[in-house]
Amino acid sequence: MKAFRLFVLGISFLAFGLFFSCSKSEEKASLATGSNEWELVILDSIQVDYLADVREGTFNNGIGLIKDISSSTLVKFDTTGRILLKKEFPQEGPGSVMWLQTLVEHNGEYFGLTSFKDIYHFDKELNIKETLKMPFLGEARGGAYNRKNITVWNEKLLLWYPGRDGVSPYIDYFHRDYPLLELFDLKTRNSIPVVRTPSTSKFSGEDFHVSPSISFAIANDSLYLVFSNEPLIHVYSMEDSIAWTRSFDIGASDFKLMPGQKTPVTYQEMIRMYEASVYGIFTDAKNIILTYHGGIDEETFTINELKERENFYRYPEFLKNYLKIYNHELGWSNPIMIPAKIKLILNIESVEKPFYALRDDDFIGEEHDFLTFYKLQLRRK
User: Fold this and answer.
1) Is 262's pLDDT higher than 50?
2) Which of 22, 141, 259, 359 is the most exposed place for a label (fewest CB within 10 A)?
3) Does some domain include residue 188?
4) What is the pLDDT of residues 1-27, one digit of tens each?
5) Is residue 12 part of a domain?
6) Order of strands across the sheet with 118-122?
7) Which domain of life is it from (predicted)?
8) Closest CA to 320 of 253, 269, 233, 260
9) Per-residue pLDDT tens digits for 226-241
């Protein structure tokens, strides 16, 4: 009997080993044959015992950080949903935090971008370590949430912070005629204007378009920059100076846009449809990951009266959200559908690692006194 049990146990281990070996072999074979097909899987969910309107956040190395849009409160939590820190800052006076927007993690600490001169540097305990001062007032007002528009590179901050010489990003041909980003040196505290729109972009020409949001990421000393309403990635070398090297199409079959026109786009023209938008860009050593939605065409937009505020909640009925992966050897993956119940992806560190996204309770029709985050994983088919 004992010998039989040992035999069964041995067979079990052998079967497990074969299964594991086959799985690894299939993955290697997939790469070897040039397959780049993926799916998005919800592994689990976690609850964070805090209720707020969250539209900004990040997640790195097992730690999440979110900002309450209605107050100057930062909440830090782990992969179980346990709150590690909750810090509320005054909105005026000493120690205040105002107009905080995009957050980026660096060595366990955080930088927070604002529209008005200050860049906040938070330590691991979310104390304000220092307030960095830009040499001029920013001119950006409002805009899209949780854009990837600040990153750390070689002890410098690369950031979207228009306003140099008092120039507004909302003037005609701003993106054609002026540098797009600022490079702030953390040692000297000086900032220089960098990155021009390349000739491959529609924003380099004479036609008028809806003003875009800008997102970017850096990997392997290359800058990858996207305009929200243009299906291109613009690549810049970061080695000696930030110089454009090439642009390439994101290969999106569903990306509805207004055509360029000879006069500035009015508000009434803008709300005839809902343009497609690239709203997230992430990188690892081998891949670029994009998130975007395909927009809503003019006919659907008009019939369903989607320009009316009382119908804004219906947008998820008509929008399709996608994730695509560009592998530097294999090219673009298939478009991967992002479920409408996902409201906000905090970060994607790698195609191999799980990542977290805020659930849209309004969409699923539930009310809770806590926040729910999905644990997601990209899985190769």
Assistant:
1) yes
2) 259
3) yes
4) 434 343 333 444 334 343 334 444 444
5) no
6) 100-106, 109-114, 118-122, 128-133
7) Bacteria
8) 253
9) 999 999 999 999 987 8
Among 144, 177, 141, 185, residue whose Cα is nearest residue 161:
141
The CATH number assigned to the domain holding 193 equals: 2.120.10.30
Q: Quick one: how far is CA 119 from the chain centroid?
A: 19
Task: Answer for the pair 76, 84: CB distance below 8 angstroms, yes or no.
Answer: yes
Structural domain for 41, as ranges: 36-380
Of 283, 281, 292, nearest to 349 by C-alpha is 283
| Distance (Å, whole) CA 200 – CA 230 | 11
110 strand-pairing partners:
105, 122
337 pLDDT higher than 70: yes
pTM of the model: 0.89
Q: Report if residue 14 sits inside a domain.
A: no
pLDDT 10s digits, 45-71 = 999 999 998 989 999 999 999 998 888
pLDDT above 70 (res 91): yes
- DSSP strands (E only) in 53-172: 54-60, 63-68, 73-78, 83-88, 100-106, 109-114, 118-122, 128-133, 150-153, 156-159
Q: At residue 259, what are phi and psi to the nearest 5 degrees? A: -70, 155
Token pair belonging to 74: 């930062």
What pLDDT is stored for residue 33 in this prediction?
47
Q: Strand 336-338 relative to strand 342-345: parallel, antiparallel, unpaired? A: unpaired
Report the alpha-carbon distance of residue 134 to residue 190 in Å, rounded: 8
Instruction: Please give the tally of structural domains in the chain.
Output: 1
DSSP designation for 260: P
Among residues 274, 276, 278, 275, the alpha carbon closest in space to that of 304 is found at 274
